[in-house]
Amino acid sequence: MRIIKLESELAAADIARKLTEAGLLLEQQNTADTMVLLQVLDCDEAYCAKVAESIASFLFNEWVYAYINERLSERHSYLNDDEREYVSLLTLHALRKATIGDRTMDVWEQDLAVALEQMLHKTAVTHLDLVGFMRFRARDVLSATDTGTEEFVSQFLADREYEEFVSLLRYMLESQPSTRQVVHVFCTDERMWLCDETGALISDEDVSQAAYQVSDDGEVNVEDLAMSVLITRSPCKIVIHDITHAAPWPSFSETVERVFLERATRCNHCAACTLLEHGDTCPSAVDGHLLAMPDDYDV
């Protein structure tokens, strides 16, 4: 007979379920829910391998998920249950696809299963603290988990802040009556600007002046100014000409689409965009409109 004592402060109920589903015999689980006793009647190599594979699978799935969730509870207690679950699942999914220390998570799992099997063969009674085992055998995985968790929390908070920002802009837009004006928004890697249907540059001195007055350092982001002008004018249609390459998230064109919804459409790479991509910086007649590309443009 071989006895295996598994101890874990995380997801102990899950390890019991995992082993039971694998057809392994559990003798008992203590009242503190941190210890599982596995009584092995047949101690041949195949059986021990099955035990080791089941434990390793648990460690890199249910246990890691519980580890992430606990870290979130400790370090980011302001997140609610649904938010913690969302970040935990994102982190776990990213880890499953990652390469950590030149090994994929599948390889890590296989290597730990081999190490576990070797331990099971050494003595008749094996007492295994899963937390200590992971810290000793999979330190790089835990380090990557900690880093990934913090990165996804930062991303989640940025996404939430952006959603709140978009909601505020949409609320401001809804307070403005829609006009019959059509505005073309041009976005390149170097600059962005607004034109009307005739190709004339759009500016708004009142909006610009107000923005500069409330600015602490006298500098105003041109995209913020452009959004203020768009909301103030509330055009019935916005045509987006976006030829940026790998624009940082969130891009201005994406924000325009999120705020103006069905009013905003993309040009689908029109002739004006083709000229811009080929470096035509001179005013040009395109589809009956004047394409104006300013050297220094303030909205």
Automatic annotation (TrEMBL):
Pfam families: YtxC
Name of this chain's protein: Sporulation protein YtxC
Highest classification ranks of the organism: Bacteria, Bacillati, Bacillota, Bacilli, Bacillales
